[in-house]
Amino acid sequence: MPTSPAHSVIVLDFETTGLSPNMGDRAIEIGAVKLEDGVVVDTYQQLMNPGFRVSGFIEGYTGITNNMLRGAPSCEEVMADFAHFIGDSHLVAHNASFDKRFLDAELEQVNARYSGQFACSMLIARRLIQDSPTHKLGDLVRFKGIPNDGVFHRALADAEMTAKLWMVMLDDLRAQQIIDPSFALMQKISKTSKSAIGKLLQSSAT
Length: 206
Known about the structure:
Blueprint: E1 10-16, E2 27-36, E3 39-47, H1 56-62, H2 66-70, H3 75-86, E4 91-93, H4 96-109, E5 118-120, H5 121-128, H6 137-143, H7 155-175, H8 183-191, H9 197-204
Parallel strand pairs: 1-4, 4-5
Antiparallel strand pairs: 1-2, 2-3
Helix pairs in contact: 3-4, 5-8, 6-7
């Protein structure tokens, strides 16, 4: 089976009613960017009605109001559609453990599955961009000088920023003679200690 390239992935982001689907929290927005050979070829964005009112804190944090959600399709309707968008692509998210929990929980509601694997851009950035003051998405975007419109905590805007950060990290690897980084290498970077990253990258260079 050929090695899957890191530049052909789906980058996704959820906005949610809280921190944990195990506590009854639901997704209220999904945003995703499809990259092929490092180029954005498609995007996906949809609000979804969780079936209950969201808190004032979440309204303020995301800018997604109960009025906006009232006319939105249900989580089940949106996630059944989003499963088709994902297909068999590998997936990337910033703080991927959070987004994976919600993706798994919401897809389970509609008996849908996905075959791709996840990589976490935040964990990778901690290894590759060690001198950034923090590894929050907005701080990394500013630290690397990535153009942005200042919108954060909306799903598609965050997915687009994460996709740009992902490509910047791939470009940084190419500058270190890792010409065509694989998705598996990016996963390996996320699990390698900071002190051992230099050795890993050296052994991965062509």
